[in-house]
Amino acid sequence: MKRITEIWFDESHIFGKDEHGNIYKQSLLWYPHLKNADKAQRERYTIGYDGLHWRELDEDVSFESFEYDDAEPTPLQRFFMTHTEINVAEFSKKCNINATLMRNYINGFKKPSKERENLIFETIHNLGKEYINA
Questions:
Q1: Model's pTM, two decimal places?
Q2: d(CA 99, CA 96)
Q3: By percentage, how much of the chain surpasses pLDDT 70?
């Protein structure tokens, strides 16, 4: 496991540099408290044995997470992470997909087939059309 020794932010990412000078980045969508924090709040962190901790924000970022393959959310994950007003259980009914399975797709625990992903995005588009025509 790499040890992150320096961090910085842009509007949508947290960056980390390890002790060997390698630079990593992750989407702040994974860390909503950090995403919504101001510069001063982001600067008040501690470095622990296995990660970074923001006590005031109650947010933790493990060193290991900087090496995850999914540093960026998929388009499906991004949609639901940025549209928290959508009730996943009710949306799942529209897609005829089990709500637990849908949450697993959103959280990255499972990956939908291309056909299933197309069905979900088609349902999202249809929902948008319903709102436009209302």
A1: 0.75
A2: 9
A3: 99
